[in-house]
Design a protein that fits this description.
The protein is 43% helix and 19% strand. Helix 2 (49-58) runs parallel beside helix 3. The chain has a 4-stranded parallel beta sheet, with helices on both faces. It is globular. The protein has a single domain, classed as Rossmann fold, CATH 3.40.50. The model has no long low-confidence stretch (mean pLDDT 95). By secondary structure, it is of the alpha/beta class. It starts with a strand and ends with a helix. Strand 1 (3-9), helix 1 and strand 2 form a beta-alpha-beta unit. It contains 4 helices and 4 strands, in the order E-H-E-H-E-H-E-H. This is Sirohydrochlorin cobaltochelatase. It holds the Pfam family CbiX.
Length: 122
């Protein structure tokens, strides 16, 4: 069974915006060499989520976890992502696909962000 983790981000016009997400991808990949870790975007950047999934399936991946790299569960996560996922499931009916909560909703991520807020005051 080949597994993948897709970090799903919004996307932006400035290519430099993707740098922290690329670092996150690279660090996650280093911790999980047996899992393919990739980035996909909602808009403005490539690859978009459906194209990223097509490439993973073509590479033999049959189990994918999509992790929204959003601070909260807004419209993109609650409305847009489920619509995109339905299209992906229709295109790849044998693919095991799990969507997890937005990264910013995780208590450990919240704790790390709180620590950064406190440290920012010196």
């Amino acid at each position: 069974m080949a597994r993948a983790l897709v970090l799903f981000a919004h996307g932006a016009r400035a290519q430099s915006w993707a740098a922290p997400f690329e670092r996150l991808r690279d660090q996650a990949q280093a911790r999980m060499p047996e899992v393919r870790v990739t980035l996909a975007f909602l808009e403005l950047m490539e690859p978009r989520l459906p194209e990223a999934m097509d490439a993973l399936v073509l590479a033999g991946v049959d189990e994918v976890t999509v992790l929204p790299v959003f601070l909260g569960q807004g419209g993109h996560v609650l409305r847009d992502l489920p619509q995109i996922v339905e299209t992906i499931r229709a295109a790849h009916p044998g693919l095991r696909l799990e969507i997890v909560g937005a990264i910013g909703e995780d208590p450990q991520v919240q704790a790390a962000m709180t620590e950064y807020c406190v440290r920012s005051l010196g």
